[in-house]
Design a protein that fits this description.
Helices cover about 10% and strands about 30% of the residues. By secondary structure, it is mainly beta. The longest helix is centred in the first third of the chain and has 20 residues. It starts with a helix and ends in a 34-residue tail after the last strand.
């Protein structure tokens, strides 16, 4: 059958599926995300769906002075707006804030009804649309307001960002770029060079999370799978569903850990120095399957994808199976709930939000592949002795309406400034939020320039600046 004939014959079925999806059809979840949190989440029997359970809120954005809700004792303020899908944040040693603005490159061919539906859903909810393909710099003025400057342009779906000494690394969807960082610049003067390539064919998952090791000797990059569960063939999964270890001196990389479907956030836990990841698990087998998770990442470890999930729970859609490999699958450390779509991770080390010190903040972007909605909030997971030690707690909520009909925003990347405030990139609201203690004073305190771990390894401090006009 010719491609255009196949498309014509599929169109009525796809149209019906889309209409059903947008109407919110499908079986609803039986478990709440909180019931699936922790080290041993309940996992119901997998089911097959023509149209999986879904809930699609309409894009509304933040109107007027509207903003997310925070728990008692905290306050939240908008420090930047009018951005183009802000995804990740990096606080520089002089307390400038870099904002990575991007969306998917739109290169993935549409081969399944799910892909067509997903594209329509993203546009409807505000998650679609062109990203900035740039890095914006935010600089705080003495009065507390923030200027913004276009810092780096003409990137290709960037996501990860890290500073090591005077070298700034940006992970595009297909490569890592390196730039010479000059403190105080509001526009990058270095044109940049490519350090090394990253997997970039098909781009089912395009985000490339990145973090530098504390000693600056390695970069770690999350490379998501090119499919939901291997349906595009495993030949397109080379260096995918993996955490890659990259040599900053040469750009050479190796697979550090594998079988992680989509590692969307990477950070080093400060007490133990171990690498941790958040991961988005597979879809289309139920509203309560499979929980996204937070886990330590072991060198040479295998975490199941695509053959199994949560250890040895076999995904029978994948053929042929690899039982000998499934036997080695590592059980993730901590379940976050199904389809919360965790995209931001930050281990908090400050004192301003002392009650959260030592634990992990997680930005949950929310997924369309579940009814009712899950995610769309920032949660905090307590840690003790370098391991999760209790239920996740909601910290920032209110990103959608009470009736789940309207979506205002969706949190992604997180960071911490010198005052210990939590910064949140909101890629649907196109805003950067700042969360502080409710009794915190306005203006930079005496701690400016002393952020812990916010600028990557080996960052140098400077308060220089130039007079580039903000936009």
């Amino acid at each position: 059958m010719h491609g255009h004939e196949r498309t014509r014959r599929q169109a009525p079925c796809l149209a019906v599926a889309l209409l059903l999806t947008l109407a919110g059809c499908g079986e609803k979840a039986k478990l709440t995300p909180s019931q699936q949190m922790g080290g041993n989440p309940p996992l119901p029997q997998a089911k097959a769906y023509l149209v999986p359970p879904m809930r699609v809120p309409d894009f509304a954005g933040w109107q007027g002075d509207a903003k997310p809700q925070v728990v008692a004792g905290l306050k939240i303020e908008k420090i930047a707006s009018g951005l183009l899908h802000p995804r990740q944040l990096l606080v520089l040693p002089n307390q400038d804030v870099l904002v990575v603005e991007a969306n998917g490159p739109g290169e993935e061919p549409v081969t399944t009804p799910k892909q067509l539906i997903a594209g329509k859903v993203k546009n409807k909810s505000g998650k679609g649309g062109k990203g900035g393909n740039r890095v914006t710099l935010l600089r705080r003025k003495p009065g507390g307001e923030w200027d913004k400057y276009v810092y780096i342009e003409k990137l290709h779906s960037p996501f990860g960002i890290a500073l090591v000494g005077d070298t700034l690394y940006v992970a595009n969807t297909g490569n890592i770029m390196k730039f010479r960082y000059v403190p105080g610049e509001t526009k990058m003067s270095d044109p940049g060079i490519e350090l090394g390539d990253l997997p970039s064919t098909v781009n089912h998952h395009w985000t490339k999370a990145m973090v530098a090791s504390p000693d600056g000797k390695h970069l770690y990059v999350g490379s998501g799978s090119n499919s939901n569960a291997g349906e595009n063939g495993l030949e397109v999964e080379y260096r995918r569903a993996a955490v890659l270890e990259v040599d900053p001196a040469t750009g050479a990389s190796r697979v550090f850990a594998s079988g992680i479907r989509n590692p969307t956030g990477l950070q080093f836990e400060p007490q133990t120095g171990k690498l941790w990841a958040i991961a988005n698990e597979r879809d289309e087998i139920g509203a309560d399957l499979v929980p996204d998770y937070l886990t330590s990442v072991r060198e040479h470890g295998f975490y199941g994808w695509p053959y199994s999930y949560y250890g040895q729970h076999v995904d029978y859609r994948v053929q042929p199976q690899r039982p000998e490999l499934v036997k080695t699958a590592i059980v993730p450390d901590y379940a976050l709930g199904s389809h919360v779509a965790a995209l931001g991770l930050w281990f908090y080390t400050g004192d301003a939000l002392r009650q959260y010190k030592g634990g992990a903040f997680i930005g949950e972007h929310g997924s369309w592949d579940r009814a009712p909605l899950s995610g769309y909030k920032v949660v905090w997971v307590p840690f003790a002795n370098g391991m999760p030690s209790g239920k996740a707690q909601d910290v920032v909520t209110g990103f959608y309406s009470a009736d789940e009909a309207h979506l205002f925003g969706a949190p992604v990347g997180l960071a911490q400034d010198a005052e210990g405030a939590l910064l949140i990139a909101d890629d649907v609201g196109d805003v950067v939020w700042r969360v502080t203690s409710a009794n915190a004073k306005t203006g930079m305190g005496s701690g400016a320039g002393t952020a812990t771990g916010s600028s990557g390894a080996g960052g140098k401090k400077s308060n220089g600046g130039n007079k580039t006009t903000p936009y």
